[in-house]
Amino acid sequence: MNELSKNQSKYSTTLVACLIAVYIIWGSTYLGMKVAAEVLPPFLLSAFRFFVAGMIMFVIGMAKEKEWPSLKQWASAGLVGTLLIGIGNGGVALAVHYMPSGLVALLIAAAPAYFVAQDWAFFSRKRPAAMTLWGILIGFIGLFFIFNPFSSGASYDYPVWPLFVIIFGSICWTLGSLLVQRLPMPRQLTSTAIQMLAGFVFTMVMSMVLERDSWHTVADMTTRTWLALLHLILLGSLVGYTSYSWLTRNAPPRITSTYAYVNPVVALFLGWIVLNETLSLNGLIGSVIVILGVVLMTWKKK
């Protein structure tokens, strides 16, 4: 019984630590991507970030876990990394290049809706509770309140197409997260490293296809750019993504998806404080509605 209690206590401590890391650190990565993308094209930025972080994590994983993955494990981790990092995170980096970082984070606050919908449709086959469905509806009402294109005199200084990039990327992100517990994955650190390296391959290919004319901007990197990139590598990837990877393997999707509650608020206020992005009344009200929606969506009586 004592051993069981110790294991439960260790699990609870790790769970809370990983959630806090994902909540706060990932909220700040929107700002980091926005700053780094002032100079670097978004896919090249993502490729740099995840190549360095992935290689560091792979060395750590091999040293600590001492287990070479099988071909199936390589393929599974590579697929998850492409969905999560390549498409999901790469899409975010592309979107924040054109849109305020706080608003991008608010759109991603709908991620729990994609978790619930895909888990119901493809995996657990359990119909969501009525409160969950109400939460989904309220969350999308909040997003529509912020981005309503039909409001009189609506005027935005950014294009609309990144919204669809974020939605598609979020769907891929949640699908990859749900697959982690259902595929033969390597051990924790090695799996995280392979996912990062798969994301590097995807974003590097996208950069070669779409951004070759912008590669010269690497020579224009300033101290501000380097600091933002280091923040993304050391905190956003090595700490934040590793924490999220642990959650996808060890926590229910309902718990894992709660990072979307706090990230938008952190990103919105950092964008306002550091980058002087507009913090409108609609943005504040809409963020409250979105967070209320996703809280209701994942609320359980127990």
Give your account of this protein's structure:
With 302 residues, the chain is mostly helical. It has one domain (27-297). The protein is 77% helix and 0% strand. It is built from 12 helices and no strands. The protein has helices at residues 2-36, 42-65, 71-96, 101-108, 111-123, 130-147, 161-179, 188-210, 223-250, 253-256, 259-275, 281-297. It is globular, with a radius of gyration of 19 Å.
Give the helix level as a range of percent.
Answer: over 70%
Taking the sheet with the most strands, its summary is: none
Q: SSE order, as H and E?
A: HHHHHHHHHHHH
Average pLDDT value?
Answer: 84
Structural class estimated from helices and strands: mainly alpha
Radius of gyration: 19 Å
Name the overall outline: globular
Number of helices, where a helix is a run of at least 4 consecutive DSSP H or I residues: 12
Distance between the termini: 23 Å
Unreliable runs: none
Q: DSSP strand (E) fraction?
A: under 5%
Total count of domains: 1
Q: What is the oligomer described by this structure? A: single chain
Quantity of strands, as a count: 0
